[in-house]
Every structure is written in structure tokens, then in C-alpha cells.
């Protein structure tokens, strides 16, 4: 067996594998002998069935098994010579049968990109101060008020008003309506944006028991929904007073609750500001240090992430056939997030190396504790060992510290907050 490796880019290697007919026949012969040892057949003693009979019975499947095994051996020989191997594509048979009975296959291997380190200190980014306005505090206070509201039936009127909650029976007379409306009973909270905006406006003024047609635009088509209001309810808000604050368990007075809310919003704003600075710095680093992207690996990484999400939703494992379908149907925009993440990883790994960042076992355990909040340290250590995850978690710590070095040396220009 022989192979040829051609460097197509910094990260892509094209591998051509030639499997001679002699290699296939050799594997085929071994498979025949292994079968003879256990095969029982009328007219022959165990282990004495002629090879010709076995070949006749096995037919093309025997040759196919031999070709598959020969290919696996040849591919392994080839990829074992590639340093920093990251991802291998599916194998494609390009010459099904050579003159000597062998075949030729091709595949693509991707290697870890190498980034050229540039001066990553002193980068300039813009950020607004983390400011919490009185309006933001009052809006959050109103959200708390609404969360503690109660819903009561309306007894003194039969006509729908704005912000009512209505129980209705719907039907969809035309095809456009079927895109947004299922027929049957449902509850609609007006003003919440859960229903078509035009149809919500048309519902205001409807009378209990009297059918009304609601119209709205759907994909440039006019949708028509027939609606019968069965019941009207309203949301009753609690009074915003000291008693309300006391009921929340966060403060004894309304002014005290406002201060609690302000503190929480301030923490959130500062957290968001730090994230915005980090995102801006990472974007600068990507522009400063571009890399050839191993697209096959990035797509596989995105597909695996989607697979894990689906498994968590479905609470069952997804087989490789479904993973193949995910890979086939994955959209470019779905891959972009993982392309950016991987680019960030490569750069921060390089900076961590340049800064000679070291991570202790205690550092790794501390990071894992953040991932599994509340988990006992003994269980965390067991998880790290079972999943061979020390290096994986440790590398994340290194990247976080590398980003902190970049951030601490950055120039942050103050800008006015939007809005």
C-alpha cells in the first residue's frame, strides 16, 4: 500500500491512498482462514471446509470486507504521518478498480492552524460606562409588579379592551392564516406580542359570543382568522407600596426595593460592559491575527454541538445517521459562531503560550466548580478523571487568563451609552 500527501493550504492535506490488489487478496485470504476455524457445514468437519466453498458462499461481501479493512489500514498509515492532526473527512473511492484488482481512494485531513503572534497589548476599543437610570429601575419595578399580578374574570362588560386577556375559539378560513393560527380554543394576552399585531387591534371591540373576522399580513398575504370571544379576563396589579416590597422578601420598604433593584441592574450592566469589551478585543485580535480555517473541523464541531442540544431536548442519544443528516443540512450562518469561537481559541492558546501561563490542579478544579455549581469536589475530581478532562478544562483557564492579560493592557475609550 502507498499514499501521497499534498499540502493544499496551511491546514488542509489531500491524501491519495493506493491499495494494491495483492493487499486486498492477502486480507481476503486471512478472512477466509478465520471463517474456516469456526464454520460448521454439512459434509465437512469443523475447520475443514475448503476455501473455495467459503469464497463461493460469501461472494462479494467477502471481497468488500477485505477492501474495507485494507483501506482502514492504509488510511491509518497515512494519517499517522501527519502532525497536529485535527479532523479527517469521509473517504472517497476515486478509482474503484485498478489493473491489478486494487483501488484508489482520497480523503482530506485538517491540521491545527498556526497563528503568527502580533503585538496584542495596547489594543484600543470603545465602551460606555455601566450606568443605571432611574427609568430602568422603575421599569424593572413594574416588571416585578406584573410578575406578581393576578388574573381575574371581567364581570361588568362584554366588549374586549386593550390589554385584556381573552379566551377565544379560532378558525383559519384561508391558507395564509394557517401559517400563524391553529384552529381551536386558546388564550390571548393582548399587548404582549404573542399574536399577530394587526389581528390583536381588530380583536379590540369584539363582543363575547359574536364572531369577528381578524385580518393581518403574513408573508405579503392577507390572513383571515374567524374568532369568537368566550371569556374576558384582566390582569390586576398589586399596589406598589412598602407591603409589596416586604412580600418580595428583598426589602422592607419600596425605596429599599428600588435600591436592591438598582444594585442588581448595576451588576448586570457592569457584567455586560466587560463582555462587550472582551468581544471587541477578540474581534480586534481576529483581525490582527488571521488564520487559515479548517472548515471541515469547524462544521463537525457545530454539528456535534447541535447534536448535544437535541439529545438534551429529546433525552435520548442521537445515532450517527442522524448526525450525518445534521452535518448535511447545517446552514453557513449556524457554523459562523463556531468558526469565531475556534479562531478565538487558537489566538488565545498562542498568547497563553507566549505568556507561559501555567495552570495547577487547584485551578482546574476551581474552574470545573464554576461549570458544575453545587457539585461536591470529590465528584468533580471523578468527572475530570473519568472524562480525561483536566487538559480540556485547564486550557480554558489558560485562555481566560490570556484574555485578561490582553484586557488589562488594552486602552478603553469612553463613549456615550446608546439611548
Please explain how this structure is put together.
With 419 residues, this protein is an alpha+beta fold. Among the domains are: 2-111, Alpha-Beta Plaits (2-Layer Sandwich); 150-236, Transcription elongation factor, GreA/GreB, C-terminal domain (Chitinase A, domain 3), CATH 3.10.50.30; 358-419, no CATH class. The protein is built from 14 helices and twelve strands. The strands form three sheets. Strands 1, 2, 3, 4 and 5 form a five-stranded antiparallel sheet that branches. Strands 7, 8, 9, 10 and 11 form a five-stranded antiparallel sheet that branches. Helix 7 (242-248) crosses helix 8. The mean pLDDT is 89.
The helicity comes to 40-55%
By DSSP (H or I, 4+ residues per run), the number of helices equals 14
How many angstroms separate the termini? Answer: 68 Å
Per DSSP E runs of 2 or more residues, the count of β-strands stands at: 12
* Proportion of residues in β-strands: 15-25%
By helix and strand content, what is the structural category? alpha+beta
Q: CATH H-level name of the domain at 2-111... which superfamily?
A: Trigger factor ribosome-binding domain
CATH topology descriptor of the domain at 2-111: Alpha-Beta Plaits
Instruction: State the CATH class of the domain at 2-111.
Output: Alpha Beta
| Order of SSEs | EEHHHEEEEHEEHEHEEHHHHHHHHE
The profile of the biggest β sheet is: 5 strands, antiparallel
Which stretches are poorly predicted, pLDDT < 50 over at least 5 residues? none
Amino acid at each position: 500500500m502507498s499514499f501521497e500527501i499534498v499540502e493544499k493550504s496551511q491546514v488542509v492535506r489531500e491524501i491519495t491512498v493506493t491499495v494494491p490488489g495483492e493487499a486486498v487478496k492477502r486480507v481476503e485470504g486471512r478472512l477466509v482462514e478465520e471463517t474456516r476455524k469456526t464454520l460448521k457445514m454439512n459434509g465437512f468437519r469443523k475447520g475443514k471446509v475448503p476455501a473455495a466453498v467459503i469464497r463461493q458462499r460469501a461472494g462479494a461481501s467477502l471481497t468488500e470486507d477485505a477492501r474495507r479493512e485494507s483501506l482502514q489500514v492504509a488510511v491509518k498509515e497515512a494519517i499517522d504521518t501527519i502532525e497536529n492532526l485535527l479532523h479527517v473527512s469521509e473517504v472517497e473511492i476515486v478509482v474503484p478498480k485498478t489493473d491489478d484488482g486494487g483501488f484508489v481512494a482520497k480523503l482530506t485531513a485538517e491540521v491545527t492552524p498556526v497563528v503568527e503572534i502580533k503585538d496584542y497589548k495596547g489594543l484600543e476599543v470603545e465602551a460606555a460606562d455601566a450606568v443605571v437610570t432611574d427609568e430602568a429601575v422603575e421599569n424593572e419595578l413594574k416588571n416585578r409588579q406584573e410578575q406578581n399580578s393576578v388574573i381575574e374574570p371581567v364581570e361588568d362588560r362584554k366588549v374586549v379592551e386593550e390589554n385584556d386577556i381573552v379566551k377565544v375559539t379560532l378558525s383559519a378560513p384561508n391558507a395564509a392564516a394557517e401559517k400563524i393560527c391553529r384552529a381551536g380554543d386558546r388564550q390571548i394576552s393582548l399587548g404582549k406580542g404573542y399574536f399577530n399585531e394587526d389581528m390583536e387591534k381588530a380583536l379590540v371591540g369584539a363582543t363575547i359570543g359574536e364572531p369577528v373576522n381578524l385580518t393581518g399580513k403574513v408573508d405579503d398575504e392577507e390572513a383571515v382568522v374567524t374568532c369568537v370571544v368566550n371569556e374576558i379576563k384582566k390582569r390586576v396589579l398589586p399596589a406598589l407600596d412598602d407591603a409589596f416590597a416586604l412580600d418580595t422578601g428583598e426589602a422592607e420598604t419600596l425605596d429599599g426595593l428600588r435600591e436592591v433593584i438598582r444594585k442588581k441592574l448595576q451588576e448586570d450592566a457592569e457584567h455586560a460592559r466587560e463582555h462587550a469589551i472582551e468581544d471587541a478585543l477578540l474581534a480586534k485580535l481576529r483581525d490582527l491575527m488571521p488564520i487559515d480555517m479548517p472548515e471541515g473541523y469547524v462544521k463537525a464541531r457545530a454539528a456535534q454541538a447541535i447534536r448535544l442540544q437535541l439529545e438534551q431536548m429529546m433525552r435520548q442519544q442521537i445515532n450517527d445517521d442522524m448526525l450525518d443528516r445534521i452535518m448535511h443540512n447545517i446552514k453557513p450562518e449556524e457554523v459562523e459562531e463556531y468558526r469565531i469561537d475556534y479562531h478565538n481559541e487558537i489566538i488565545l492558546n498562542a498568547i497563553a503560550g507566549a505568556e507561559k501561563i501555567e495552570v495547577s490542579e487547584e485551578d482546574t478544579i476551581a474552574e470545573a466548580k464554576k461549570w458544575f455549581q453545587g457539585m461536591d469536589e470529590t465528584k468533580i475530581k471523578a468527572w475530570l478523571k473519568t472524562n480525561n478532562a483536566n487538559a480540556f478544562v485547564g486550557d480554558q483557564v489558560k485562555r481566560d487568563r490570556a484574555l485578561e492579560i490582553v484586557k488589562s493592557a488594552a486602552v478603553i475609550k469612553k463613549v456615550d451609552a446608546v439611548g
